[in-house]
């Protein structure tokens, strides 16, 4: 084992994403899987394993304690678990100020194509009058909208605000509750839950006489693993909090 080997503990190893992460880490020549922990395992086992990096693919109720524990013990964290709202992110930033050597990546999506599509959509959104998002996932997904859709909407809204673009036109006066989707910073987001799907997203942009669509499809959870491995290889060189895998990509936008 090289002195530069990344020693990884996977949390949530029994889940669909976690089991893929275990296989990806085991197949990476520059990594060693030192712990694969399930729901009933203690986080202390990750510390005792000698891990330098943690991949958290657990559940929203567990992820905050896991990441705070990793930071407090000098471990770097790559996090794919949802539930990191503004207050949780702010608390994590405060903890990281006390442990400036630790790096944390919180990624709503690890699929490189999805990250690129969201970045392209944010860039394009400032040039179109209307902007909406449709996200489609399997029916076992516990959150709606997806973290990816929320992140995409936030990026698009920020770009539109910076460019002085007004809200999308909408003359709706009567609606069944939820018919127009969730409002994320002025961007409407619609969630579909359907058997047979994995993870899919469409960004719809429109102006008079034209429409631009960005669509990304993940047909297998293996599509997320290149992003997980990129996060593991980068996070130690990026101390502090990075929100979104786009922070590790040279997009030049």
From TrEMBL:
Binding residue positions for NAD(+): 12-17, 80-82, 107-110
Domain spans labelled Dihydrodipicolinate reductase N-terminal: 6-110
GO molecular function: 4-hydroxy-tetrahydrodipicolinate reductase; NAD binding; NADP binding; oxidoreductase activity, acting on CH or CH2 groups, NAD or NADP as acceptor
Keyword NADP recorded: yes
Signal peptide: none
Enzyme class: oxidoreductase
Main location class: cytoplasm
Active site per the UniProt annotation: 137, 141
Quaternary structure and interacting proteins, as annotated: Homotetramer.
Functional summary from the UniProt entry: Catalyzes the conversion of 4-hydroxy-tetrahydrodipicolinate (HTPA) to tetrahydrodipicolinate.
Family to which this protein belongs: Belongs to the DapB family.
Protein name per UniProt: 4-hydroxy-tetrahydrodipicolinate reductase
Organism of derivation: Nesterenkonia salmonea
């Amino acid at each position: 084992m090289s002195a530069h080997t990344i020693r990884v503990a996977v949390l949530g190893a029994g889940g669909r994403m976690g089991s893929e992460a275990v296989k990806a880490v085991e197949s990476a020549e520059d990594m060693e899987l030192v712990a694969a922990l399930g729901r009933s395992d203690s986080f202390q086992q990750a510390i005792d394993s000698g891990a330098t990096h943690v991949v958290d693919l657990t559940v929203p109720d567990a992820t905050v304690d896991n990441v705070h524990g990793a930071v407090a013990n000098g471990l770097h964290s790559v996090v794919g678990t949802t539930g990191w709202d503004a207050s949780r992110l702010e608390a994590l930033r405060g903890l990281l100020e006390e442990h400036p050597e630790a790096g944390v990546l919180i990624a709503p999506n690890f699929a490189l194509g999805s990250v690129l599509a969201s970045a392209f959509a944010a860039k394009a959104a400032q040039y179109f009058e209307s902007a909406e998002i449709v996200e489609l996932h399997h029916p076992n997904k516990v959150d709606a909208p997806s973290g990816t859709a929320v992140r995409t909407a936030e990026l698009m809204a920020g770009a539109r605000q910076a460019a002085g673009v007004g809200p999308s036109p909408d003359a709706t006066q009567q609606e069944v509750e939820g018919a127009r989707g969730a409002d994320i910073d002025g961007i409407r987001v619609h969630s579909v839950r359907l058997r047979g799907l994995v993870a899919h997203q469409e960004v719809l942009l429109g102006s008079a006489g034209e429409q631009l669509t960005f669509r990304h499809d993940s047909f297998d959870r293996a599509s997320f693993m290149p992003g997980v491995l990129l996060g593991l290889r980068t996070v130690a060189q990026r101390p502090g909090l990075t929100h979104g895998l786009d922070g590790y990509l040279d997009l030049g936008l």
